[in-house]
Amino acid sequence: MNSLFPKPTFKVDDIISYAELVAAENANIQKGMNFQIKQEYSIFLMSVRKNAPYADEWDKATNTLIYEGHDAPSNLAKEPKEVDQPLSTPKGTLTENGKFFTAAQSYKMRLIQEPHKIKVYEKIKDGIWCYKGFFDLVNAQIVNTGKRNVFKFYLKPVEFITKKKQIELPHSRLIPTVVKLEVWARDKGECVICHSKDNLHFDHDIPFSKGGASLTAKNVRILCAKHNLQKSDKILSFPPVFLS
Ligand SMILES: [Zn+2]
User: Fold this and answer.
1) Which residues of 124-144 are buried (b: 16+ CB within 10 A; e: fewer)?
2) pTM for the whole structure
3) How much of the chain exceeds pLDDT 70, in percent?
4) CA of 174 to the centre of ligand 1 (A)
């Protein structure tokens, strides 16, 4: 069972504005969890910033994005952070938590052949987003935090090679958010070569195909699409960077 997945408009680790996100999806995405907003996939908006509303995390050991479910709406719960995250609405229909939970369970029980596909965008800071690519929803759990029950969704990154074939991204492809924030501040949100502020991308100085690691700000920089393309797979040294 192979459905046709459209190619993502962005490359993984592209830096985009919210307007570009909306334009690419041709949808005004307001919520964090968007079940089957497109026929072929769903969309998660996530964040691991300190003041983020939910406890999303990248688990390095298992190369998994652990995405927290969402709280009851404030018109239904006085203290949404104090009560269990709901599986269903008062009318008895599934919430977004419930829809994704059902999709994950269906895959685990092999009621569906392919895991549910989720496209992920990460909020880096206000107005600045990063495209994280497609993920497989491989598991979901209800976890007790000691105070209440929350949903946890387990996502594995996938890369689309052709319509029918996909491979898992090695974890080193995922630049940690803290590194992105440091690089963004250091490079002043512009291409380090031409100072363009458009079509930006988090670039690694040593390509992963040559064994490069990406885990510190020293080997990550911002390039525009043109200079990222020119770089291709060549190993370049960095232009000097001065930290203020
Ligand atoms: Zn440039």
Assistant:
1) beeebbbbbbbbbbebbeeee
2) 0.74
3) 80
4) 22
